[in-house]
Write a structure and sequence with these properties.
The complex is a heterodimer of chains A (about 150) and B (about 325).
Chain A lengths: L7 E2 L4 E2 L3 H25 L16 H9 L1 H4 L3 H21 L7 H34 L10
Antiparallel strand pairs in A: 1-2
Chain B lengths: L25 H30 L7 H4 L13 H25 L3 H31 L4 E4 L4 E10 L2 E6 L35 H10 L4 E7 L5 E3 L2 H11 E5 L12 H34 L1 H5 L3 H26 L1
Antiparallel strand pairs in B: 1-2, 1-6, 2-3, 2-4, 4-5
The chains are: A mainly alpha (about 150), B alpha+beta (about 325).
Amino acid sequence: MAHAHKLEIFRGLWKFKSNTQKIWGVLAFLTLVTAIEVVLGIYKPESLMHTWLDPMEGGFFATLYNIILSPFIYMKPLNLIFILLTIVKAYYITWDFMHMRDEKSSLRRAVVWTGVFLICYLIFILLQEGGYVFEVYNTDDALIKRDF
Amino acid sequence: MDTTVANTGTEGKTWGGGNRPLGASYGKLMMWFFIVSDALTFSGFLAAYGFSRFKFIGEWPIADEVFTHVPFFHGNYPMIYVAFMTFILIMSSVTMVLAVDAGHHMNKAKVTLYMFLTIIGGAIFVGSQAWEWATFIQGDYGAVQTKGGNILQFGEYVDVDGEQKFKRISIDDFAVPVADVRVEHERKNGLWFVDEAPLPEYSVNEIYKGLEANPNILVRNQIINEEGEKTVLSREESLKQIKENGQLVVKGANLVVNEYGTSLFADFFFFITGFHGFHVFSGVVINIIIFFNVVLGTYERRGSYEMVEKVGLYWHFVDLVWVFVFTFFYLV
């Protein structure tokens, strides 16, 4: 039977002769990514444990700067790396194991855009609210204090 | 993909699944529908976890200190076992996709073999998760819960390669038995047929006596300091905190108390990994059903192994969710 598998990953950098070979190639890549995550998680390099940028104070443009660069300002680089690697893994699982690469682009978009949009929205709202509650508990003039 | 054609008597019936709107068959499309909605369910859970974590960002338990055990090995190995579990699940995803591929070639023997390996992988994963739960529930060192519901843990400073490291000490190693412990209320005493949950192994008083007797032991609280470690209190402060605020001795974790820190952590851990584990379990059951269908030759007669592809989609989705659970519970 003829198969419509696309037999290359990394935008054609890595080509395969058969679908089976591609599966093993993707497995090798996913294993490598997981291994990197685990090694980073165990050793936690000191240079990745503190944020690289500080938030700017005052004014509209300072706020804009803080929002645009928020992943670098408010998140440890190590955690940012973990999240990016997770999304990379998710991409290859969906594209090659679930054969999204071989589906029509309309199906691909219906699934991916819907999910990505709603999930980003949900995460933004809930994390924003969680940060706000943290502020309520922890500012200097907070009325609610930790009770031991 | 056009390569698999399922002749299930729906040809030409537009509203019966007969046409293929996005080039995918009715069954596959419906599986994608389900996956999108299930993905939203899981992201709802994970976002709720993120909400609670952001709320207590200064005192959330550090995963590396919670999940440190490997079966059959003693000692401190953070991450190793869960990395193994992740690998098992990815591996079973690979055998699943190989089964789908063999199905495209109508190779019944290979589909059977790969489906079997997938089921084994899923079973190992579920078993590992059960073990992980059991270890988490059983607990490690024990701790004292304060009146405000915070957790105080115990340890001492030891010299490791010329560096002062805080090493945890189990409450079993220093608690001093005291005679005046309250007796558990049983059904046969006092108010009839009313009993209470088993009392903790130690009373706070016993822990306090033990702490007093061992000048090397210090208390640490939940607050994460500048170095990203939990705050260790001074000796005087340690004694004071246990005496004034200690209320309950806890060991292990359940939905009410959690020796590792805020009980929300345990609640979300049980809920999210439990819900994922339930997905893996149902995935294994569905895989077994499909496996027997393959063995019986159902798909051979139907002329298409598309059913394997559909259950494969579900199985990969379970793997996909685990990748995120792994990141947000164990790494970040």
